[in-house]
Design a protein that fits this description.
It is a single chain. The chain has a two-stranded antiparallel ribbon. Helix 3 crosses helix 9, helix 4 runs antiparallel to helix 5 and helix 8 packs antiparallel against helix 9. The longest helix has 29 residues. The chain has about 375 residues and is an all-alpha fold. The protein contains 15 helices and 2 strands.
């Protein structure tokens, strides 16, 4: 592909970014606690500015060194090779923002170190240099780092000895759910941005400044990349980005408190991340029915079925964003309502989810024999 590199950002935009970069540590360290809104705004703007500025640079580097996702006419049916490294931008913007917004305690260091492990594994995977087994091993190592830094699921309703296996299952599930949903322009990045903002609201409700800053740093980084990842995508997150984002969302969701008023508030993180979780379970169910190995690609994703049904890529992305925001709003509500109200809401959502899954499963898709020519 003989494509001209994108023009570099203007000097004015760069100067604004530098101004925010140097204002942020002053604001976070000197402003009183009553100025939390200013701290949050500057955190978000710094992450957004860094990602917006760095994405064209990463895109040009990916094109120069041929780190691209090439169409194969089967599962990858985009028209031209699309650069990877969008995930590197999210990672770097997130890390640099944290360096200027918060004192690095044990949990933050654990989250960033675990994220770094997955970024390395994901980068090699984007260059097709690792096997699925190595990816899983990298995920388990990253989760172990989280647990050693004190980040784990802690629930009164569960025995303490179950916290570690539940933590592994939850974080690994979210990592792979975000990875699985990253099959369409703007889908994973946009859904993750919406989920990050909902987790920010959860942190505000809980009065947890640390999680508020972390979620805003992630949200700003995602929004900066989404501008270039939305259809038609000029850069992809790659496994580097999807696994890192999944780890961040999985770990940040565990630190929040959801059951102050209602023990069923425990399902709030599941609702907030409901779109990628639904797609993961939906794909797993259909592949199991067809006898297809879980690691073999197929067009069973809900987004691809919606595309087959006549929706456009932009429509599917926007519907997914709206679903994430709606589920996030419901999650915030059930955290503060009664047990009985929550029970009725979950029952209704369960029935609705099964109905949507059934309708999607009825859409005729190409078989793997047609896709792979076997």
């Amino acid at each position: 592909m003989n494509e001209k590199p994108r023009e570099q950002p203007t000097n004015i935009a760069f100067l604004v970014l530098i101004l925010i970069f140097f204002m942020l540590p002053i604001s976070t360290n000197l402003l009183p606690s009553s100025f939390l809104l200013a701290k949050y705004l500057l955190t978000f703007l710094l992450a957004l500015g860094l990602a917006s500025w760095a994405t064209p640079l990463a895109r040009n580097a990916a094109l120069q060194y041929n780190i691209v996702d090439k169409p194969d006419g089967r599962l990858k049916d985009h028209h031209f090779p699309v650069p990877y490294l969008g995930g590197i931008v999210v990672y770097i913007s997130f890390i640099l923002t944290l360096a200027f917004t918060f004192h690095l305690n044990e949990k933050i260091l654990g989250i960033t170190l675990a994220g770094s492990v997955l970024v390395i594994v994901g980068l090699f995977d984007d260059m097709q240099a690792v096997t699925p087994e190595i990816k899983i091993l990298g995920q388990l190592i990253a989760i172990l780092v989280l647990i050693k830094s004190g980040i784990r699921i802690e629930l009164i309703v569960l025995p303490e000895f179950l916290s570690i296996p539940f933590t592994v299952l939850w974080v690994a599930g979210i990592i792979n759910a975000i990875n699985i949903i990253d099959i369409m322009d703007g889908l994973a990045a946009g859904v993750a941005f919406c989920a990050s903002m909902v987790f920010f609201l959860v942190a505000v409700v809980n009065g947890n400044t640390m999680i508020s800053v972390l979620t805003l740093a992630l949200a700003g980084s995602l929004l900066g990349v989404l501008k270039y990842n939305f259809e038609p995508a000029e850069i992809y997150l790659g496994d580097t980005g999807s696994m890192f984002i999944g780890l961040m969302l999985g770990s940040l969701s565990m630190i929040g408190r959801y059951t102050q008023y209602n023990v069923l508030g425990i399902v709030a993180p599941v609702l907030i991340l409901g779109v990628p979780i639904f797609d993961m379970l939906f794909v797993m169910f259909l592949r199991h029915q067809k006898g297809i190995p879980m690691f073999l690609g197929s067009k069973d994703h809900f987004a691809l079925r919606c595309l087959q049904a006549g929706y456009s890529v932009k429509q599917i992305a926007i519907i997914s964003y709206a679903a994430t925001v709606t589920l996030g709003g419901i999650a915030l509500f059930i955290m503060q309502t009664t047990f009985l109200n929550t029970l009725w809401i979950l029952l209704t959502l369960g029935i609705g989810t099964l109905y949507v899954g059934h309708k999607l499963s009825q859409i005729k898709m190409p078989s793997n024999r047609e896709i792979f020519g076997k």
